[in-house]
Amino acid sequence: MRAVSDPRDEIGAWLGQDVQLLSPRPGTFDRVWRQSRRRKADKALIAGAGAAAVIACVALAPQLVSALRPGGGPAQHPVASGTSRPARTSARPPGRQTAGPSDRPGAAASRSATQLPAGLALSPTTSGGPVPANFRPTSITMIAGDIAAVIGQAGPLGHCASRYCTSLAGTPDFGGTWYGVGAPSTGGPRGAAGVSQLRFLNLSDGWAYGPQLWVTTNGGASWQQEHTYGLRATDLETADNHAVALFARCGGTGSRYAADCTSFSLYASAAGSSAWRPVPGPVRNLTAAGGGPAAASLVIAAAAASDPAGPTGYLLAPSGQLLSGPLTGSAWKVIGRVPAACRPGTAQLSGEPAGSQLAADSAGARTAAPVASGSQLLLSCGGPAADRNSQSTTIYASADGVHWRRTGTPPATGTATSLAATSGGLLVLATSAGIDYSADDGRNWRPAAVSGTARARDFTYVAMTTPTRGVAVPADSGLGEVFTTINGGKSWSPSPVRGGGS
Question: What is the pTM of this model?
Fold first, then answer.
């Protein structure tokens, strides 16, 4: 066999030789030098642009923070209708005709509302601007703590922020300061069109109604008109992630949208849903005994925190029947009847019945009947009204909606327009001649002290959010203010709805 030489010797010899480097092509060093100069220039430009962006962000940050807070930035314009963007969460476009409730295949899925931090505007995208000039509030809703919102017409007629004058304003401090909020693109009440009343469930979900019905799920950033099947929304209340509303068949014209109503039906909707469904039970096509124009009203009694059943709703029907049920869409039933002399009369401008107002104290009811121990239903009953400024009113109370007892008589001046009650026996009654209060379940009454202009004596709405704090709306929206109390209704002070505080 032939011997093979060791290959490592040849490789080692080759590696041990000196390497001869080749010379670069002519002009190579010049090209490398020029490319290096260009890369350095590009890096300098990028670094300068980055520094400018950081400086711009630092300068813009205070403006963004300011825009999220009530009052907004100096460059903002008054917030009114038509300024909000189209709803992105809508199940159908505004104005599109839909089938009636019996034809709907199913409700849109309910979603949880986003809770914005207390003290911020209702919507960071449309709130924070100045309040439109000449704001004339017609309704107020307390939302959370000291946060509230009002709706009304604003701006000189024909010179509004948009083709509509309907506007919203919010307050983070119980009427101390006000800021603009996006509003529905519709006018004030005029027959079957427009809105005049406002209810918010939380900082996100709200409804503007009377007679149309509009909904927002983002604190006023956008509004969508809801379909009421040819009926008018005359009353609406919210609690526990739900809303219930009265849809009525009416013939009233102009601002009297709730006049000449001949039948009422109860509908319910979950927060975040675009579907309103008829509530089961005998709450369809409610009419007055003997027919003719009438009115109806809703109240909600809040349940105790430990009560799994949740709040209970009550409906005072035109016939004088009292119906009750949950807010979840389950069936309601008749639980009793109010005294014969207390049947609802025709509707006020707010849609509420004249002559009879129903209220429930804040302790609430656990079931439709009886009312929870320690709580009760209250009813103001107006006698024959020969003179709007001298109508007598009697207060009744009931623990079950069946048996009513007469508790007392407020001062015999003015027609009762709205009744509010809280735990501890406090009742507050708004009238056409002022506000009265009782600290003992209506047995004894005293007139409240109302400061401000002498025209602020006729009130259309009152509500107590705690045993000490409450709000009221004067009948004269031209005053441009709402009223607040911090001492249980004993005295009331005006809060002008305009920018820069009261």
Answer: 0.76
Is 198 in contact with 151 (CB distance < 8 Å)? yes
pLDDT-derived band at 45, boundaries 50, 70, 90: very low
Question: Distance from CA of residue 13 to its chain's centroid?
Answer: 93
Neighbours of 144 (CB within 10 A): 15
Q: Is 264 exposed, middle or buried (0-12, 13-18, 19+ CB in 10 A)?
A: buried
Most confident of 60-69, 124-133, 409-418: 409-418
List residues bridging with 473 in a β-sheet. 461
Q: Is 355 exposed, middle or buried (0-12, 13-18, 19+ CB in 10 A)?
A: buried
* Exposure on the CB side of residue 175, measured as CA atoms within 13 A: 24
Reduced to 3 states, what is the DSSP secondary structure of residue 381? strand
Which residue type is seen at 183? A
- Please state, in angstroms and rounded to a whole number, the distance separating the CA atoms of residues 228 and 35: 72
CA nearest neighbour of 275 among 249, 242, 314, 298: 242
Q: How far is CA 210 from CA 189, 298, 301, 413, in A?
A: 7, 14, 22, 29
**Interval 269-289: pLDDT, tens:** 999 888 899 999 999 999 998
Helix (H, G, I), strand (E, B) or coil at 222: coil
Q: Collapse the DSSP code of 14 into the 3-class scheme (helix H, G, I; strand E, B; otherwise coil) and give the result.
A: helix
Asked if 327 and 311 count as a contact pair (C-beta separation under 8 A), the reply is yes
User: Residue 176: how many CB atoms within 10 A of its CB?
Assistant: 13
3-state SS of 248-282? EECCCCCCCCCCCCCEEEEEEEECCCCCCEECCCC
User: What is residue 169's predicted lDDT score, i.e. its pLDDT?
Assistant: 94
> Has residue 407 got a pLDDT over 60?
yes
Q: Where residue 351 falls among pLDDT bands split at 50, 70, 90?
A: confident
